[in-house]
Amino acid sequence: MSDADHQELPVFNAVSGSARQLYLLLRCISFADKAQVQITEEGLRFSVEESSIMEGLAFLDKSLFTSYQYNAPALRPSTPNSQDSAASETPEPPTFQISLPSLLETLQIFGLTDQNSRPPWAREAQSMAFSSNILGMNNLCRLSYISHGSPLSIIITESSITTTCALTTYEPAFTADIPFERQSLAVKIIMRASWLHDAITELASTAPSRLTLVARMQRGKPYFALSASGPLGSASVEFNNAASTIYPPTAATNATTPDTAPSLLLETFQLADPSARVTNSYKFALIQKAARAMAVATKVSVRGDAQGVLSLQFMIEVEAGKVSFVDFRFVPFVAEEGDYEEEGESEGEEEVADREDESGEDEE
Question: Most buried of 148, 266, 344, 345, CB within 10 angstroms?
């Protein structure tokens, strides 16, 4: 193939059998107007950020598409004084910004994501024996990107109706992600995403400005708490495995008490220092912007690194047997002197409560 023929090929061309799964993932990070898109051989990476203290990442793996073609763009001419000649031989993945609300509106142009939004005649037509849903022709979605500066083309087909949209692309505004040190985690917790969603919803009733996360071992068992305070009061939600729960469960205990052993609230609980107490605070309004991901995800991995950066990674089932991940990162508040005093007081109160519980058990 000649260079001229290679230049005529689009950089990216993919076909998805369902626009719904793309919409489901991208809607989780729809808290910003502009999304930065990076096209790679492995898939599409969408990222949004707010004030450099919150970032949302959604990766559309190429396995979500029935057809995925990526042609690396041609190398840009390097300057004669370029010192990094070796790096210039590898083309950088195409990166650009697009309007995220426009993209979401395009993906649901036929109302595929919400059946109740369809008119009655459309819902009745879908239930017919020879409807496009049953015949497997539901909302074919084609994405393509020709070259640098070109629009992102989206073609959606449902039965005999075809809609073509061209979304304007912009120069990328940010290139660096919020740093998160995966190799130096202070805490890692895996739990049901619905429980985290319920907790955040309950805490929102006090109109709080801060959300404080506390993780530690309490009397030999994992303890995880979320607390918030606002003008309407304060509230906290605690996730503590039941006293009768053995953590982690062993084959012997499960064999002897298969019916009485309760399920663990915290499926995974890891502390870098089991004797330490991990406490960090974040802006509640930013945490709340991940509520859509909490509502649709099956599980969430709550991780905090040594610097206090929080990562909420949600596992979302897009279809039977296929899962995707949406990741949020949050920069913590800088701890002040007063925060340490309050933390010390709360620790003292918890120790007194623990001693009272132990004394009560001894009397019994």
Answer: 266
Q: Which domains does the chain have, with CATH numbers?
A: 9-73+91-167 (3.70.10.10), 185-333 (3.70.10.10)
The continuous run of DSSP H or E covering 25 comes out as: helix 19-26
| Helix/strand/coil (H/E/C) assignment for every residue in 276-332 | CCEEEEEEHHHHHCCHHHHHHCCEEEEEEECCCCEEEEEEEEEECCEEEEEEEEECC
Helix (H, G, I), strand (E, B) or coil at 178: coil
Which of 293, 359, 349, 361 is CA-nearest to residue 326? 293
**pTM (2 decimals)?**
0.78
Give residue 172's Cα distance to chain centre.
21
Question: Phi-psi bin for 111: left (phi > 0), alpha (psi -120 to 50), beta?
Answer: left
Is residue 140 very low, low, confident or very high in pLDDT (cuts 50, 70, 90)? Answer: confident
| Helix (H) / strand (E) containing 5 | helix 3-8
The pLDDT confidence band at residue 89, using thresholds 50, 70 and 90, is low
Ordered DSSP codes for 30-91: TTSSEEEEEE-SSEEEEEEEETTTEEEEEEEEGGGSSEEEE-PPPPPPPPTT-S-HHHHTSP
Integer angstrom CA distances of residue 240 from 101, 155, 205: 39, 49, 22
With bands split at pLDDT 50, 70 and 90, how would you rate the model's confidence at 171?
A: very high
